[in-house]
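explain this:
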Amino acid sequence: MHGRFYGGWWQQIDSGWRSKITIDNEPVIEADFEGMHVAMLYAEEGLELTYDPYTLPGYKNKGFPQKLVRKLAKSLVLTAINAKEKKAAYKAFRAGFSVNHVGKRMTDEKMDILLEAVLERNPCLGDYLFSDQGIRLMRQDSEITSLIHNHFTKTGIPVLSVHDSYIVDCRHVGELRQVMLDASEEVTGRPLRMSYNIPGREEFEDVDEGVLKKHVHDLRWAVYENEQNACEGYVQRLLQFQKRTGRRISPCAENPV
């Protein structure tokens, strides 16, 4: 659908549950492209997206906290990029919120003001609003995903994709990072900004190596503790898999970092 890869059960659960997946008894890391469709449009203009495009210093509304402004701006921008014309975009924007949400009650005039602030922050997006870009961009992000799938399939390393994010076991996170950068550059002409989904981290918040290593350490200890209480069914399936494939899945419990 739209050129994207659908169907995996891991796409039907939230990020909290996805973080509990293990591959070969190793915890997983989920990495994603940040602001992907906006970043792709920046790349088409020969620009690199180096900041959060939805944080709007120029938007003055004392009644809205910054986090809410960001949520509204992100929803409005992506809706406007996907829509063919303004009226349909504004209608779709309001439809995306629950009855009591402030987004449901925003007037066209208020959305005009919000979009003006978005364009002040991201002037290169002006020509892409209300231009029905969604299907084209989804096709391009699926081409990036296809390159990532192909790389890991050839190397025999499982990778689970959720549209613009990718899950591998923690031993391959460095390889995933490089493959994501290479694949996005091949499709868009520029390597797109990516990061890791870590609890408590906000989108576009940098993750340094120390934070990533601590996150992996915590995940491995969680897997270690779960293994101590593994049910008999899991143990038997693991033993059958090892016998069938000739592979021994060494629990990270043997040497948690």
User: Anything to note?
Assistant: Residues 134-155 form the longest helix (22 residues). The chain has two domains: 9-33+158-254, 54-121. Strands lie at 22-23, 26-33, 160-162, 165-169, 194-196. The chain has nine helices and five strands.
